[in-house]
Amino acid sequence: MFPTFLPSQVEQIQDADAIALLQNIERIAITSSLSRQPILTTYIHQGSQGIPILLLHGFDSSILEFRLLLPLLAPYNETWAVDLLGFGFTQKQKEINYSPSTIKTHLYHFWETAIAKPVILVGTSMGGATAIDFTLTYPQVVKSLVLINSIGYTSAPAFSKYLFPPFDFLAVEYLRQRKLMVFNLGSSFANLDKKTLADIQCAMLHQEMPGWHEAMISYAKTGGYDDLADKIPQVDKQTLILWGEADDMLAPEDAENFHKDIKHSQLIKVKNCGHAPQIEQPKIIAQCILEFLKNGTF
């Protein structure tokens, strides 16, 4: 049985790992200054040992991107994944302006309500930028960092300057339609393997949640984390940088820049891997994270 708050399209998911995660998604009401009503926040929690790991997903994504990684971590460490404010299956409320600032505030209140002890913060893509921003604001909450093909030295999406009616809706709808088109073509002509089709299907599910268009428009108009680069050298936590060498979304030198700017950091490049190592090479990523937790320092 799937939780009733998930969109009806969840019944079409066939990937076993995705189904296992979706059947165990929980919701918690998070009270904060961001809205009059508590924000119903979706998360996964597995495992009970050691320092908690908290996984943060990327832009226009959800905790489903950790369907392969989380089960590899949880037997060894308490592991959480949360849908960030404005993303995934977490409730979208009209009165909230979705921005890095409100994402950070909501994440703190989730941590305070659900975890309430220092964590290993793991961020992928935009989630890496969220992890850095959160760490600089709430250093007492974060014991160490893991950045996986993280945003940090990139600018706002090029289409953000066109986000005024009616182009704001059309620009965001393009994000949904391009995934749908690839999925439909791949299914009809059998030119994509089952794993790729499953990955696309998982990446589309949260887009059926109420308020998805409005939240995406609100966030994109802020420019995202385009002012983060100058703050990265302020990070003083032990940091593991994991980087898919074949990333075609971020500049190749970004990995070296993170390693150079974060004083206490280690860089591991993952071969035969693109922008999403947590999906493409989950066993390698899990092994690297667990070794990092075991060793502690560089």
Write a brief caption for the model.
The chain is an alpha/beta fold and 298 residues long.
Number of helices: 10
Biggest pleated-sheet summary: 8 strands, mixed
The radius of gyration over CA amounts to: 18 Å
The shape, in one word, is: globular
Strand content: 15-25%
Low-pLDDT runs: 158-170, 179-190
- Supply the CATH superfamily name: Alpha/Beta hydrolase fold, catalytic domain
Order of helices and strands: HEEEHEHEHEHHHEHEHH
Helical/strand content category = alpha/beta
CATH class: Alpha Beta
The proportion of residues forming helix, as a percent range, comes to 25-40%
Q: What is the name of the CATH topology? A: Rossmann fold
Instruction: Return the CATH architecture.
Output: 3-Layer(aba) Sandwich
> What is the count of β-strands?
8
Q: What's the number of structural domains?
A: 1
**How much is the average pLDDT?**
88
The largest beta-sheet arranges its strands as 1-2-4-3-5-6-7-8
Distance from first to last alpha carbon? 45 Å
